[in-house]
Amino acid sequence: MDSRVKSISQILKQRAYMQENLSTPNILQATQSYKQALLDTAQLNKSNEHSYRTQLQNLLNTLKDPPVRIIHEPQAEAGQGDIRPDFKVYRQVDSTTSLSYNALVGFIECKKWGKRLEFDVKGKQIEKYLEVCPNILLTDYNRFILLSFGNVIDDITLFPYGIDSNLFNNNATLDSTTALKFSTLLSTFFTTTPNITSKDELIKVLSTQSFYLGLKARESYHSTPRTSFHKFFEKTYETFGAITRYGLSIEEFCDLLGQSVVYGLLVAYLESELDSASPLEYVGVESIATLLPKEFHLLSEFIYFSIPSFHIPEPVSYALENIKKTIALIDKPALATMLNTQIESISIYLYEDFLKAYDDLRGSEKRKEGGVFYTPEPIINCICSSVHSLLKSHFNKPKGFLDSNVKVLDFATGTGSFLAKVFELILDEEKSRVWQQEAIREKFLKDIYGFELSFVPYIVAHIKLSSILKSRGFSSFDSENKLQIFLTNTLDLSTQADYQMTMPLLLLEEQDKLARRIKHTDEVLVIMGNPPYNNKSKNNLPEIQNLLSTYKQGLNETKINLDDDYIKFMRFAQWKLLERYNPAECAPLVLDSRQGIMGFITNNSYIWGRTHRKMRESLYNAFDRIYIINLHGDSEKDRKEDENVFDIRVGVCISLFIKYPEGHSGNSSLGNHCVDSTNFERTADLKSSSPSKFVENSTSTTANTRIVDSTNTDSQKVDSKIFYFSTSDNAIYKRADKYALLNDIAQKGLDSISWQNLECEAPYFWFIKRDLDSHEYEEFFALAEDKALGDSKAIFETYGSGNKAERDRICIHFNEADLHNLLHDFCTLDTEAIRTKYTLKEDSRDWSVDRAKADVLEHFTKAEKSPLIQQIAYRPFDTRYTFFSGKSKGFWGTPSAKISKHFLLGGGQNLGLCFTKDYTGYYEAPLIADSPIDIHYNGGQSYIAPLYRYEQTTGDDEKQTHKLKKLPNFTESFKAYCQTHKILKSKSPEQILHFIYANLFHPHYRAKYAQYLRIGFPRINFEVSKESFEALESIGRELVELHLLRKIPQDSSIYIDFRSEAKSSPNYTIQKLNTKNRFVDSMLILNDDLCIKGVDTAVYDYTIGGYKVIEKWLSYRNDYTCSKLELEHLESICKILKRTIALQKELEQIAL
């Protein structure tokens, strides 16, 4: 008899026994005895959490099946740590059955009689137990809650009257209905083999087991420094890091190991035959690597050396054993039915959710940091189908991807979705089954490459692509016929393997050599994919940094945002297709052909970012044609209703870069790819918008844009370069509509939409439509000199960024008392004590506990308590306290001391205009300050220009060696301009500042020059009438006084109010609320007792620098108890914003 059939047969027998033993008469008799035993114990008046455990065990022993063993107060098993429930329940299995050990049935956890068990169901203790066993019975001896994978399956109370002797009597016996329910609960607990049948259960179990294994591996590594395990693990870690050159920490390496083992075993189990016992049951943990599918030899090697079979620490061994047991619980057919997929495809569908759940357990964002996001099918279809068509029409490849000499590389393969679509398109070209088999051998397994750095997606990609080939009848995988997917760091461009292997990871070394050959020797025609988006990239190898310098040359920017991984991947692709010189030596190689296509879905910041201009220039000069489909979806910059095609916050775009073969003119493409709007037909999903919306701008032109009209035969001969399509410009905001658009392009080609032809010009080379047609604006004075572009026509001489603390929570405080307490700790506690007390993690380049402490000791003790305790403008209308010595990499990481000194020396009398350089969205950034500012004071990177400079001079008298000289902070060119200006020559610096401030708040100014305000410092027009100047200056003066809180409007309609019963003992603590509950019927709700009335929607929503002022102020104070003065300050903010809105309406009446 098959072992699995025997096992099922035995379970059926056990259930039959349980049904007989748990019959109503038996259970009534047993519970009556249990009740009496409880009552006897309770009457001793010494009962506690443990008093009734023997009585419970007697009850369960009476009702259980004989093979079931209930162990009271079990010792914690090796590797379980604090996993020690009150009872462990095992089923004794005969040695001839499929199971070779005493199978764990479940845990029983007891709590004190009458305890509210709701808190324990989701508590840390049960969470720990679930790491080991999914079947848990939680009880207070009266109430019984059955849990399976953390879900409540049953909840029964035996004696609702409790244990009180007056109520707990013979008339309160268990009724037959409750007895039947209790019988069912125990039967389920004792006899049901828990199966995993839902996606959520499986995700939770897989992520938990991965996390637990990684945790135990890390703990074992650190706690066993001289063992064989430690040595093997460390050498494997070192070798893996040396080959991949990615710089994983031990913690990250353990994460990788845990995820790889669990996912590898999952795949092994899913691929095992359904009608046979799982091999998991027969293989010991020491041989766990042998369970993996044969095509995963690389993973087997990795696990074999990371967890040496001859010395596996007990905690790791237990974790592995538990993983085996857990995966064996998966009900494959049920899960496949639920997911509507084949059993072997289950792992493909779970990948992204698995990583997300793992991140939740780790309290990290590794998935986001790694840019790991499933690419939606419409995006893949659009890119792959477009490239397939371009190969046919522009590269003389009539069969597209299938044609000879067409080699394809997905440089960030992930789960292989792009390559799967390439496979599909190739197979569609070959209708004959025989020719398909040849295409598989000669094309799929030779010319289609994939690079991936992480094991789990590497595994999933193999499964996905193999299943495609198997579905077409190909299964002859061997050393000569295998998928060309390599575990490698795409951005490692070193030409030689310059590393020493301390552990013989020979298969990984072979993969590295093959990938290196593809990077440096093999020619590919197409590179595509979805590169990771991570602006905190770890890929800082010298070769890719050398390549990236092309995008940075001549920028002259103080902050260059070009280190995002997606930019590095794009630079790699450009190098691979068109340059391929040694990136370490910058020595060009001679290529047989400089041609090819790049097709990506990426962050869209490179098409509009100011600091990306050299990148755009390089791409513009390198390629013959560029297609940009801007899908928008940025949660901060785009319209609220503009949905992202991914579940991410940054906007995205699809880009196609084409370098034609030598001799190709490129003219033929225009007619094919720029189509008359009347030919566009929407799909059923797009009925919500009319087709004309796609070309509603077709009659307009802008400074860098013209519409390509295919009805004009002359336009087809234009040597067009960049073609741009914006979903936002065509009123496509819903994700479903964007998908429909992309599917339409995939089916009908690039000629199914009307493109805008962008005319790129220096210095910006925009890859986006810009309305830059106001030549007069460029003649205005800029607030400050744009050194990057050599623009010297500026108003303010001295300006700079705000101060960057690096540790806001440490450096910036609501009040002086809290700051003094912290400074006292920094003076008296040692470094580790400070780190522990203030939960400070790793130091950074610009801030460390040691340096901060040294700065405080050096300056705070000398100054006692005064001069260096300063106010800092942290956020709009949110001034706080800090300790400021001006020392770089001290208490403040990156202070702007040269700018801040003009406010400190000015004694609070100086003014500073705060602004931004390249603001996105509607311009609302300017603000005034009279103290040093934080770097994010008014959103983004904040710049400040003081109105006056304070310079120290040496006097003639030796006793007056230091004098302060107060000078207007204007450039020489602007001072000369003022001297001859009919209005400005008689105006003070303050009046000029007021005029500037009014301009910056003028709604017409913000709208008229919106495009310019996104790409540089604001510019001001002083050529106005005297009447306009005086009107603007007057309003500007009032705005300055308001925003510095020097003038509070007398507005009785806005006031703090209490509930009547709260007035005698008011609650001043700000309650954490969402927007819906924070702002209700013109009331700003602070807590249940307190609100501010008379606040209209415009005031609550008023925004400065991307911050909703009131919402931001409150968000920093959730669960914080305000003083009366702080609450009155918030009331004043509401009044000030209301008056600001009124003044902006007055400004609309003044012509610019």
TrEMBL record:
Residues 794-1124 form the Type ISP restriction-modification enzyme LLaBIII C-terminal specificity domain. It comes from the Bacteria. Signal peptide: none annotated. Gene3D superfamilies: Vaccinia Virus protein VP39. Its EC number is 2.1.1.72. Keywords: Methyltransferase, Transferase. One of its GO terms (biological process) is methylation. Pfam families: N6_Mtase, Type_ISP_C. InterPro entries: DNA_methylase_A-5 (IPR003356), N4_N6_ade-DNA_methylase (IPR050953), SAM-dependent_MTases_sf (IPR029063), Type_ISP_LLaBIII_C (IPR041635). Residues 351-541 form the DNA methylase adenine-specific domain. It catalyses: a 2'-deoxyadenosine in DNA + S-adenosyl-L-methionine = an N(6)-methyl-2'-deoxyadenosine in DNA + S-adenosyl-L-homocysteine + H(+). GO terms for molecular function: DNA binding; N-methyltransferase activity; site-specific DNA-methyltransferase (adenine-specific) activity. Belongs to the N(4)/N(6)-methyltransferase family. This is site-specific DNA-methyltransferase (adenine-specific).
